[in-house]
Design goal:
Oligomer: single chain
CATH superfamily of the largest domain: Intergrase catalytic core
CATH architecture of the largest domain: Orthogonal Bundle
Helix content: 40-55%
CATH topology of the largest domain: hpI Integrase, Chain A
Shape: elongated
Radius of gyration: 29 Å
Number of domains: 3
Order of helices and strands: HEEEHHHHHHHHHEEEHHHHHHH
Length: 389
């Protein structure tokens, strides 16, 4: 009996390579113990097929989910993500979205792979699975970040459901809800800035005193017109009429039209920045008003923003930096102060906001006098008694 057992053991095949994750079981199948249960993946004589079966089901088994049946025509999580990213790549090539947006979508696909595995069939996912994913997303992150991640993931889920890639819709249920408005408010109030996300006039003047020409012009555009960091980085010469003092610049982020009156201080600062500007040999780059000292654009197709970083340095140098306060706070300052004029349509047009009320749908134009009034009010707030007219 001992000899027969020894002979049987000697007939067991060797692993194809040391990293092969399965072992030859006495039942003449390749096997692996997962979460205390023996799982089998194919006969000894076909280790490659057994390995592929392990790859197909390992994510489900390691997460304690039932072993999925083999459905060659079903879409896996990786398939859904691949189709979504290809669709967004088409939009990227058409200029509908930016590279940074595409990068952010690609990043959240990695969270789906981490939570569910690439080979898991998408229509096997349950609301409870999305509860597990939400736990991963929420760990160590602020509610606003979780809100943004869930928004991007839901874009992928809705894309799949809308196009019918799965036999049944992918349901996230109540397990994958975004943080509530109350959670967002409480979190913001608990930050260092106490929920105050704008700079006061004295702080802005402090920064302007030490800013170099390019940053000074950008800062003034931020508070004069309510431009964000991406806006100033992508501002082109064709958007400016420095002789008449007007800016006509559809927002790069939304394409919404914007028209605003420029202050004398802003015009002077822009001209000073242009005088110091290093031209670029590339026409696609030279069209931008502001270039770095190397003749490169200020924007990057990544989450890093050079305008924000440079502004952060100025805040540090003037002892005005508080966590959560950045260049975009100039835009908030404009909206906050301009709202005192009670002329929201003029404010919206100056900032490039899309009005949502019924009047905005019917309004065909807005007089420049109203835009000038808004600009004048904010200018007086910033410079105080020094504004003579």
């Amino acid at each position: 009996m001992a000899n027969s057992t020894k002979a049987a053991a000697q007939t067991k095949p060797q692993k194809p390579n040391p990293d092969f994750p399965l072992f030859p079981h006495a039942t003449k199948r390749w096997a692996k113990k997962v979460k205390g249960k023996m799982e089998y993946f194919g006969p000894w004589d076909d280790p490659e097929a057994a390995l592929q079966e392990w790859y197909r089901v390992k994510d489900a088994l390691l997460q304690g989910r039932p072993r999925p049946e083999h459905r060659p025509d079903a879409y896996a999580v990786a398939d859904i993500c691949d189709l979504f990213l290809k669709d967004r790549k088409t939009k990227l090539d058409a200029g509908s979205i930016r590279q940074r947006t595409w990068n952010e979508y690609k990043a959240v696909c990695e969270y789906l792979f981490q939570a569910f595995g690439k080979e898991t069939y998408a229509d096997d996912l349950t609301p409870q699975d999305f509860g597990h994913l939400r736990g991963i997303l929420a760990k160590g992150r602020r509610p606003k970040t979780v809100h943004n991640l869930i928004t991007r993931i839901m874009a992928i889920i809705n894309f799949s459901n809308k196009n019918g890639f799965t036999d049944r819709p992918i349901l996230t249920g109540s397990y994958f809800e975004k943080p509530s408005a109350a959670e967002l408010r409480i979190d913001q109030a608990g930050q260092e800035h106490g929920g105050q996300l704008m700079l006061e006039s004295t702080q802005i003047r402090d920064v302007l005193k030490i800013a170099l020409p390019v940053m000074k012009a950008m800062i003034l555009l931020g508070v004069n017109v309510g431009m964000g960091n991406e806006d100033v980085a992508r501002l082109e010469f064709r958007h400016l009429n420095l002789d008449s003092g007007w800016l006509d610049f559809p927002r790069p982020k939304t394409g919404v039209q914007r028209r605003a009156k420029l202050w004398p201080e802003t015009i002077k600062a822009i001209n000073a920045a242009i005088d110091k500007r290093k031209a670029s040999d590339d026409p696609a780059t030279d069209k931008y008003v502001f270039l770095t000292r190397y003749g490169k654009p200020w924007f990057r197709e990544t989450n890093e923003n050079q305008v924000s970083r440079a502004f952060r340095g100025l805040l540090d140098d003037t002892d005005n930096h508080v966590k959560g306060i950045g260049f975009y706070c100039l835009r908030r300052a404009f909206e906050t102060v301009a709202s005192e004029t009670l002329d929201q349509p003029a404010i919206d047009l100056s900032m490039g906001h899309q009005g949502v009320d019924m009047a905005a749908l019917y309004r065909q134009r807005l007089g420049d006098k109203r835009l000038e009034g808004v600009a004048k009010h904010v200018r007086k707030w910033l410079f105080g008694k020094r504004v003579a007219k």
